[in-house]
Write a structure and sequence with these properties.
The complex is a heterodimer of chains A (153) and B (586). Chain A has 153 residues and is mostly beta strands. Chain A has one helix and ten strands. Chain A has a single domain, classed as Immunoglobulin-like. In chain A, the strands form three sheets. Chain A has a four-stranded antiparallel sheet with strand order 6-1-10-9, with no helix packed on it. Chain A has a four-stranded antiparallel sheet with strand order 5-4-7-8, with no helix packed on it. Chain A has a two-stranded antiparallel sheet with strand order 2-3. In chain A, 37% of the residues are buried. Chain B folds into three domains: 130 residues, C2 domain (Immunoglobulin-like), CATH 2.60.40; 134 residues, C2 domain (Immunoglobulin-like); 238 residues, von Willebrand factor, type A domain (Rossmann fold, 3-Layer(aba) Sandwich), CATH 3.40.50. In chain B, strands 17, 18, 21, 22, 24, 25 and 27 form a seven-stranded mixed sheet that branches. In chain B, strands 4-1-8-7 form a four-stranded antiparallel sheet. Chain B has a four-stranded antiparallel sheet with strand order 3-2-5-6. The chains are: A mainly beta (153), B alpha+beta (586). Chains A and B meet through strand 8 and strand 9 of A and helix 10 and strand 26 of B. Strand 9 of chain A pairs antiparallel with strand 26 of chain B, so a sheet runs across the interface. Chain B: GO terms for molecular function: calcium-dependent phospholipid binding; metal ion binding. Chain B: InterPro entries: C2_dom, C2_domain_sf, C2B_Copine, Copine, Copine_C, VWF_A, vWFA_dom_sf. Chain B: It is found in: Cell membrane. Chain B: It comes from Capsella rubella.
């Protein structure tokens, strides 16, 4: 039962790394605990805007919502990392997104969820916000008539 | 009293305030528009703030008018009024006189400003103009000297919600001593006069700016102004401030065509260093039109800033450069475009039934229903908001809830149906809400505590259910409360969960409590709401206003709440790139 899921990393705000504002080269990574997604997905690196990177990258992958009790607690991790000039990637902050926030508890499949989460750094302090949007693409078999339901764009 | 011009209708039109030349009709249009005050408008424009209301042009036509003249037909003219709160009529404009016709289609349009937050009642009077006045400018005609042909009334938002933006009204009135005759009909067509809906989104960046601060680097921001009358510059836009950076990059700037005029109008772009004293220092300036900015972006060129040097009168060319990273031209639809294409606003009410309101039977209770007919604060708020929004809802069925009250089964509920029914929470019309409210006051005992999370969840549930239907609806929840929230965290959680849905929450505070918590929920200071799970509100869906004194002045406090609604609706549809129904995708 695997579905296509489309994640668009939009932007992040107020990123601080080692007490200084992040200057450049920040990118986002989306991953789940467990094997729900085929591979961790990354946005492109934003080289210019410092602590307010904007990506607007659409990432598609397969997603199997999994079985039994795991669904209740399954979580997606959104990380914002920055690449230093030496080429190393430092994790600036991580957000923990419960999967049920976008799997249709509040709205239907196909609805574009625009979500924002607080990023937490390694020492557990608040470190900015990450904005992204998620949509579970509806199964082709569900689209009977060509009528696209209005708000589901 | 024969009309010798009866065969020459075109000549007649030209002779009598008919089709005006373009400049004259422009001046009549401004004079026709009573809601727009020139001085106030200029005050705001000079500060770069443009009015958010749209100008609407009304075209009138009538059919089957009463024939008043003996040997020929009537010479009708229509006059339009706005009915004010005190019932008085204020004239907005007049059409021209059309000779000899019982089915006139007037050419002269009447302009009125569309204001979302008030109910604009338009009253039309049709007159037959006597031959004596046929060569006189229309504005100077004394209406009491003319023959009255009929009257019609409608509300402006009613016209705007129709798909073809036309409404046909029957003319009524006491014409010819009380005989009720068929006076004919009047058709009104409304069109929004927006020059163009094009919007340019530009990403600016600078390199090598001069350092104006002593111990750190400059904090630059850009200010874009439009040159008016070859000398004065009117600011139209400002970017945010980037701290401590000589190579700043700003967030994209959106300029509407209303702001920049045409693509070739010269704009002045100035770069300032932000100082907390307010005295911002100029780093440099440059003059470019929108078309030139587009060219800079395409050809990936940069333009150097100049600094006007006082000594020689010559300008000093700086090393600092302005770069346009991205230039996108888009079409932005207006609120009225969405409404007339079929979008609906659905109204929902939640009333506070906590004990802090006071026993409803005592006169100083906030829930006291005055037998003399004076509305209490709750009724006032429901009427003012409901009256405006009801026109945007096609079936006029509104869910109404109460919270904090003890219902007939003995338990305290935080989202009970105001109509007392166990099956459905809807009432019909604003009168339905009032009746349900009055009956709930008799059947429900006031209890507590004050919790919004249940009603917000109900509203969010209703909004999310509507997503599966094919008609686009936007929900507006009005919460009227008198007190301090007990469970701030739970309310914030519910609001954050609902922030991604097509829903706006308007909170009206009645009574004299300290409403500081509500201002946190309103988030106007920029701090987005954060839930206990770490999720942050996608957008600011809450607007709060305290209703302190009902009797002060014409402009009600609740109107300030409603003014924000078109903006919230537009931010929802624009972020998701949703266009009006049937409109071409951009």
């Amino acid at each position: 039962m695997s579905r296509k899921i489309e994640i668009t990393g939009i932007s992040a705000e107020d990123l601080v790394y080692k007490k200084r504002r992040v200057k450049k080269n920040a990118y986002g990574a989306f991953d789940t605990a467990g094997k729900y997604m085929k591979q961790p997905m990354r946005t492109s690196v934003d080289e210019i805007s410092g602590n307010y990177p904007m990506w607007e990258d659409k990432l598609e992958t397969e997603f199997s919502p999994g079985k039994e009790a795991v669904t209740a607690t399954s979580v997606m991790y959104v990380q914002v990392l920055c690449r230093s000039s030496a080429g190393e990637d430092h994790c600036v902050g991580t957000a923990r997104v419960p999967v049920k926030d976008f799997t249709g508890e509040y709205a239907l499949e196909g609805f574009l969820h625009c979500l924002s989460y607080r990023l937490w750094d390694e020492s557990g302090c608040r470190n900015g916000i990450v904005n992204f949007s998620v949509r579970i693409l509806p199964d082709k078999s569900h689209l009977k008539s060509g009528l696209r339901l209005f708000w589901l764009r | 009293m024969g009309n010798c011009l009866s065969g020459d209708v075109k000549g007649g039109k030209q002779a009598i305030g008919g089709v005006q030349q373009r400049p004259t009709s422009a001046t009549t249009a401004i004079a026709n528009n009573a809601a727009l005050n020139d001085a106030v408008d200029f005050f705001f424009r000079s500060r770069g703030q443009y009015p958010l209301f749209s100008q609407i042009e009304l075209t009138l036509s009538a059919s089957n008018l009463l024939d008043c003249d003996i040997t020929s037909k009537s010479d009708p003219m229509a006059v339009m009024y706005l009915r004010k709160k005190d019932g008085k009529l204020e004239e907005i404009g007049r059409t021209e006189v059309i000779l000899n016709s019982l089915n006139p289609s007037w050419i002269e349009k009447i302009t009125v400003s569309f204001q979302f937050e008030v109910v604009q009642t338009l009253v039309f009077h049709v007159y037959d103009v006597d031959t004596r006045y046929h060569n006189v400018p229309v504005k100077t005609l004394k209406l009491k000297d003319q023959d009255f042909l009929g009257e019609a009334t409608c509300v402006l938002s009613e016209i705007m919600t129709r798909p073809n933006r036309t409404v046909t009204l029957s003319l009524t009135g006491n014409v010819r001593a009380g005989v009720n005759r068929n006076l004919g009909t009047l058709s009104v067509l409304a069109e929004e006069t927006v020059a163009s809906k094009t919007v340019a989104e530009i990403n600016f960046r600078c390199v090598n700016l001069d350092n104006k601060d002593l111990f750190s680097k400059s904090d630059p921001f850009l200010r874009i102004s439009r040159i008016v009358e070859s000398t004065a510059a009117v600011p139209i836009c400002r970017t945010e401030v980037v701290d401590n950076n000589l190579n700043p990059m700003w967030r994209p700037v959106c300029l509407t065509m209303q702001q920049f005029g045409t693509k070739d109008t010269p704009l002045v772009i100035e770069c300032f260093d932000f100082n907390t004293s307010g005295n911002h220092e100029l780093i440099g300036r440059t003059e470019k039109s929108v078309a030139e900015l587009e060219r800079l972006c395409l050809q990936k060129e940069a333009v150097n800033f100049v600094y006007p040097s006082l000594s020689h009168g010559r300008k000093k060319i700086l090393k600092g450069q302005l770069i346009v990273d991205r230039f996108v031209e888009k079409v932005q639809y207006s609120f009225l475009d969405y409404i007339s294409s079929g979008f609906e606003l659905n109204f929902m009410v939640a009333v506070d039934f906590t004990a802090s309101n006071g026993d409803p039977r005592t006169p100083n209770s906030l829930h006291y229903i005055d037998p003399s007919g004076r509305s209490n604060s709750y009724q006032q708020a429901i009427m003012e908001v409901g009256e405006v929004i009801q026109f945007y809802d096609s079936d006029k069925r509104f869910p109404a809830w109460g919270f904090g009250g003890r219902t007939s089964d003995g338990s305290v509920s935080h989202a009970f149906n105001l109509n007392g029914a166990s099956y459905g929470d809807e009432v019909v019309g604003v009168e339905g809400i009032m009746t349900a409210y009055a009956s709930a006051l008799r059947n429900v005992a006031l209890a507590g505590p004050t919790l919004f999370s249940h009603v917000v969840d109900r509203a969010a549930h209703t909004a999310s259910q509507s997503l599966s239907q094919n008609s686009p609806k936007y929900y507006v929840l009005l919460i009227i409360t008198d007190g301090v929230l007990t469970d701030m965290a739970g309310t914030v959680d519910a609001l954050v969960r609902a922030s991604d849905l097509p829903l706006s929450v308007l909170i009206v505070g009645v009574g004299n409590t300290d409403f500081r918590q509500m201002e946190i929920l309103d988030a106007d200071n920029g701090r987005r709401l954060e839930s206990s799970t770490g999720r942050i509100a996608t957008r600011d869906i809450v607007q709060f206003v305290p209703m302190k004194d009902i009797h002060s002045g014409q402009v009600s406090v609740v109107q300030a709440l409603l003014e924000e609604l078109p903006g919230q609706f537009l931010s929802y549809v624009r972020t998701r790139n949703i266009n009006p129904v049937g409109a071409p995708a951009i």
